[in-house]
Amino acid sequence: MKAREYKAEHFLWSVDDDGVAVLTLNRPERKNPLTFESYAEMRDLFRALVHARDCKVVIVTGAGGNFSSGGDVHEIIGPLTEMAMPALLDFTRMTGDLVKGMRGCPQPIIAALDGVCVGAGAIMAMASDLRIATARTKTAFLFTRVGLAGCDMGACAILPRQIGQGRASELLFTGRVMTADEGERWGFHNRLVEPDALLEAARDLAVSLARGPTFAHGVTKNQLNVEWDMSLDAAIEAEAQAQAICMQTNDFRRAYEAFAAKREPVFEGD
């Protein structure tokens, strides 16, 4: 797949010369809700990025001063109330597959968050690797507010690992808003910036990652995923094998040669 050639239908997508992609949820008049079609297209895109060597980092963001209001009330929630169990399970598995796609692609994903970040929007932020937000970002896992369980799209597995079991339990049981300040103090947001500096901050971080050893970044992301349910002994052995693989890359040699020559390494991801 050539990521630069991908033509998105249900969101904005671009990839620059640094290999930094920007996925923008683009229904600002309704705070960027998701639809059946946008869920499926994002799932397919993140799965395809496994094979996209021209894409090194992905920024996900929303247009118009908000990230996402989650599943569209009229286009998703209404129809779900009329579906039979097999169709409902198809839908919930599809939305879960979006998270699997985000976690499974080797590219680091940076969520640039502003304003409303709720429901499935909060899940997309959670499924990203790094989160930069503004002071006006309001994050809520709203599922109990519409009569559903808080265990949606991997929330009960991922969120406690990010902010702790007690804090995650509170948010998932109550559906209340996590303020930006709470998010930063609890480790959900990596940092807060001013709204007009949000995309610049996300891009600066993305470029720094894109210029790094991108093959090794993919290995790091994979190990962060697979070591969740490993014993310490198994994790140490898995990391030994992963690091030995990285030691055979050209980027490892480039770093050594640059250090010896007292210059900055130029990584190429191989």
From TrEMBL:
<protein>
    <submittedName>
        <fullName>Enoyl-CoA hydratase/carnithine racemase</fullName>
    </submittedName>
</protein>
<dbReference type="InterPro" id="IPR001753">
    <property type="entry name" value="Enoyl-CoA_hydra/iso"/>
</dbReference>
<dbReference type="InterPro" id="IPR018376">
    <property type="entry name" value="Enoyl-CoA_hyd/isom_CS"/>
</dbReference>
<comment type="similarity">
    <text>Belongs to the enoyl-CoA hydratase/isomerase family.</text>
</comment>
<dbReference type="GO" id="GO:0003824">
    <property type="term" value="F:catalytic activity"/>
</dbReference>
<dbReference type="InterPro" id="IPR014748">
    <property type="entry name" value="Enoyl-CoA_hydra_C"/>
</dbReference>
<dbReference type="InterPro" id="IPR029045">
    <property type="entry name" value="ClpP/crotonase-like_dom_sf"/>
</dbReference>
<dbReference type="Pfam" id="PF00378">
    <property type="entry name" value="ECH_1"/>
</dbReference>
